[in-house]
């Protein structure tokens, strides 16, 4: 049995859901032919494209006291889902799905109406509002699959993905999630059904709705896949796989046919949006292959991600970049490497729950990058107790990834040769030596990625959006 996760554009409208059904049917036929008695697959879906953004806008509008505007947006969203539900051809199933959609939106209107009066949206309500996108999209897809003889069976993600209570960034609790999935999903598979659940969404053990963070449906796919010990986790999206660079930045990136888990996690962590950074983790633990595939070009081979990959004739595997990064330069007011300085420094970030990405040290200072700016003022205040702090905004991290980096020492020189005259702020190469990571001004990203791509991947074309 495989787990198939479909992103927002892969469930955007009726045509997309038709394609999804054909893809699911083909996978099922293949697994039935191979003798799998419980072929599934398990389907995990995102909200229809753009819906999460709009739901978060609804929450913001309510919080600002613009209840009427928020309710107007909700009416438009309800209407869009009703139209998409036309993909359910069976009259009774369509009527039932529409009643479900109505119930979800009625409830949401009540909540948003009340929040509009209170003018305050707590993280908990924010998650309840955002989660509705996946709840309704998964209901539509389940009913559509049931109509086509594909035995779609809706599973409420809030019953099976058990998380901690960190709203907007909830962490799954694997033993509890495994138990819940075994209880709710395994029997459906055994009965020949195709279980369908929303990604991105979970709930605490006490039943409070949570979300896994933006882009989190990939993570849901991996969580479900690892807890149910799937043979493969498939991420269906709108590009042909992991590309050698972000197609929105570089003109003609090529598809990377095969990645190691290590390479994929570095690329995802440093900005390759096609994969949520936490996705690979659960797959690594059980050595489950992950495949990235294009739902508009289902026949394309995609990208396969496994623990190891065959050697490639390319020196680098791919590039990634992450914008909106802040560099924090910290200079000790006493001697830099004085006992306890680094401990205090990192404790400041730890205390304010902010992750640092790149770290470099010089004789007089330590520089780190953060991309979550929310708690920076508090961090600066804490650091200022024992150091001088300077911030540089609008910076970007560029990351060149390739298993070849530890074998070929001259590659680093080639990378910086390509970067040329662009000022590089911070530079780090991790112990894994699978990547070179450096920080530049955000405005230099297109130039630098273009130069690197020309130098390392020039001859190829293809890839990109379908
Ligand atoms: P989904 O809705 O299917 O989860 P996302 O929008 O989250 O899709 O991710 C797919 C997008 O990721 C692509 O359309 C592309 O613009 C972007 N992207 C950024 N970097 C890469 C990369 N290296 N390879 C492929 N896609 C990338
Ligand atoms: N719908 C969620 C988001 O837009 C999760 C996802 O699509 O992966 O962030
Ligand atoms: Mg995504």
How would you portray this structure in words?
The chain is α/β, with parallel strands linked by helices and 466 residues long. It has two domains: 2-237, Carbamate kinase (3-Layer(aba) Sandwich), CATH 3.40.1160; 318-457, VC0802-like. 41% of the residues lie in helices and 20% in strands. The chain contains 15 helices and 17 strands. It has helices at 14-33, 51-63, 67-84, 91-118, 123-147, 157-160, 174-184, 186-190, 217-227, 261-269, 280-286, 341-351, 376-383, 410-419, 445-457; strands spanning 2-6, 42-45, 152-154, 162-163, 194-198, 201-204, 209-211, 232-237, 258-260, 290-294, 303-306, 318-332, 359-361, 365-370, 387-401, 426-428, 435-441. It is globular. It binds adenosine-5'-diphosphate, aspartic acid (ASP) and magnesium ion. Magnesium ion (MG) binds next to loops.
Topology:
Layout: E1 2-6, H1 14-33, E2 42-45, H2 51-63, H3 67-84, H4 91-118, H5 123-147, E3 152-154, H6 157-160, E4 162-163, H7 174-184, H8 186-190, E5 194-198, E6 201-204, E7 209-211, H9 217-227, E8 232-237, E9 258-260, H10 261-269, H11 280-286, E10 290-294, E11 303-306, E12 318-332, H12 341-351, E13 359-361, E14 365-370, H13 376-383, E15 387-401, H14 410-419, E16 426-428, E17 435-441, H15 445-457
Parallel strand pairs: 1-2, 1-8, 2-5, 3-5, 4-6, 8-10, 9-11
Antiparallel strand pairs: 6-7, 10-11, 12-14, 12-15, 13-14, 15-17, 16-17
Helix pairs in contact: 2-3, 2-4, 2-5, 3-4, 4-5, 9-11, 12-13, 14-15
Bound molecules: adenosine-5'-diphosphate (ADP), aspartic acid and magnesium ion (MG).
Aspartic acid binds next to helix 9.
């Amino acid at each position: 049995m495989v787990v198939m996760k479909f992103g927002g554009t892969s469930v955007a409208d009726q045509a997309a859901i038709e394609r999804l059904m054909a893809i699911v049917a083909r996978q099922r036929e293949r697994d039935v032919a191979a003798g799998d008695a419980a072929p599934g697959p398990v389907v995990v879906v995102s909200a229809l494209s753009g819906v999460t953004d709009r739901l978060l806008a609804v929450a913001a509008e309510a919080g600002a006291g613009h209840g009427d505007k928020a309710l107007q947006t909700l009416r438009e969203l309800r209407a869009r889902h009703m139209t998409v539900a036309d993909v359910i051809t069976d009259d009774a199933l369509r009527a039932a799905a529409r009643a479900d959609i109505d119930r979800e939106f009625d409830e949401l209107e009540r909540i948003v109406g009340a929040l509009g009066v209170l003018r305050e949206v707590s993280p908990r309500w924010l998650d309840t509002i955002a989660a509705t996108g996946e709840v309704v999209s998964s209901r539509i897809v389940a009913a559509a699959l049931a109509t086509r003889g594909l035995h779609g069976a809706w599973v409420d993600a809030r019953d099976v993905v058990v998380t901690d209570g960190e709203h907007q960034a909830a962490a799954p609790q694997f033993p509890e999630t495994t138990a819940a999935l075994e209880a709710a999903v395994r029997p459906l598979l055994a009965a020949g059904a195709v279980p369908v659940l929303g990604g991105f969404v979970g709930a605490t053990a006490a039943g409070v709705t949570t979300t896994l963070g933006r882009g989190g449906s990939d993570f849901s796919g991996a969580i479900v896949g690892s807890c149910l010990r799937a043979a493969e986790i498939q991420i269906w999206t709108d590009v042909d796989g992991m590309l050698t660079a972000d197609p929105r930045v570089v003109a003609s990136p090529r598809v990377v046919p095969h990645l190691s888990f290590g390479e994929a996690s570095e690329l995802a962590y440093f900005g390759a949006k096609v994969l949520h950074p936490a996705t690979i983790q659960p797959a690594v633990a059980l050595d489950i292959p992950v495949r990235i595939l294009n739902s508009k070009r289902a026949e394309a081979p995609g990208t396969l991600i496994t623990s190891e990959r065959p050697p490639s004739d390319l020196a680098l595997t791919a590039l990634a970049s992450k914008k909106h990064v802040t560099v924090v330069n910290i200079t000790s007011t006493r001697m830099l490497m004085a006992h306890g300085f680094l401990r205090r420094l990192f404790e400041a970030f730890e205390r304010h729950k902010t992750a640092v990405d790149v770290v470099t040290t010089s004789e007089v200072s330590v520089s780190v990058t953060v991309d979550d700016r929310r708690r920076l003022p508090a961090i600066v205040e804490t650091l200022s107790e024992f150091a001088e702090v300077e911030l540089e905004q609008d910076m970007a991290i560029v990351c060149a990834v390739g298993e070849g980096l530890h074998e070929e020492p001259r590659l680093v020189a080639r990378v910086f040769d390509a970067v040329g005259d662009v000022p590089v702020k911070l530079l780090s190469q991790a112990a894994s030596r699978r990547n070179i990571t450096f920080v530049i001004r955000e405005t230099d990203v297109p130039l630098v990625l273009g130069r690197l791509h020309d130098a390392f991947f020039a001859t190829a074309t293809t890839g990109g959006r379908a």
